[in-house]
Amino acid sequence: MNYIYDKKENKTFMIAAVVLSVLFLFSLIVLLVEDRASNINTPGIIAGLMIYACPLPMIMSWYGYLDSSRYIKRLREGGIDVPYDKKAEPLMTEPPVYAEEEKDSRGSVVLAAICLCITIGIAVYTLIYHIKWTGLGMKDAGFFTGIQVVMIILWLLGAFFFFIQRSKEKYRDDTVFDPGRKARMGVLKGIVTIILCLGITVAALRVLYSITKYAYQTRLQVLYEDGDWREHEGEPLY
Q: Quick one: DSSP state of residue 2?
């Protein structure tokens, strides 16, 4: 079995994560100082750029460090000492032996439960959205409701994806040597994936809500062009 990480990569991830974190915090402090000084200069501009450039690689570096640390620690529990550089020793000479092999199988159930809870939350939000906007006469809100239903289905599929990985007969931890079984997604990677997907989902829901609200307000302005349309906000269009 090939090594996924080595000690060199673990060290590189740690250095990158620390450096990027320091840069991000330093940039944040510079921006706060610049904001109080009420003037714009080169350090402030650079700090502003760093604030936007650092978060994603910083998060990915911390993820790489934490995941590689977990991997190295888990193999050590199985009696395998991960090499410093896997290029010099790409294959394990012997498979790891564990007292408890499938630690991540329980994590798959937890990840599935998280996805299911998010699915329920989106379903409740979608129901409230549909009742509110169709009640205000926004008939085309039904199209956006359909998009949100697709999101619900995708999250349900995500829950199913994690739930089936609980099976110890078909799936294994990534630190277990068994070519006959697929490697399940680890808990840490699953959490990061869920957070990223949740961020995209929330952003999409906000966009749909904003578009619907803007369309409603525009139609109010057309309907009450001779008066103050804001006084009628919250009233149905019909």
A: B
Q: What is the largest CA-CA distance in the chain?
A: 83
Structure tokens at 236: 């149905």
Distance CA(181)–CA(101), nearest Å, equals 13
Distance CA 85, CA 99 (A): 27
pLDDT tens-place string over residues 188-198: 889 999 999 99
- Beta strands (DSSP E) in 29-187 are 171-172, 182-183
What are residue 182's DSSP bridge partners?
171
The three-state secondary structure class of 117 is helix
Domain boundaries, the chain: 1-99, 101-238
Going 230 to 145 to 121 to 64, the CA torsion angle's sign is: negative
Does residue 137 come out as left (phi exceeding 0), alpha (psi in the -120 to 50 range) or beta?
left
Query: Distance between CA atoms of 227 and 221, rounded to whole angstroms?
Result: 9
- Gap between the Cα atoms of 142 and 129, Å rounded: 10
Percent of the chain residues past pLDDT 70, beyond the cut = 87
Distance (Å, rounded) from C-alpha 10 to C-alpha 223?
63
Q: Please state the length of the chain.
A: 238
Q: Which of 91, 104, 83 is nearest to 174 (CA)?
A: 104
- Contact between residue 115 and residue 153 where contact means Cβ atoms under 8 Å apart: no
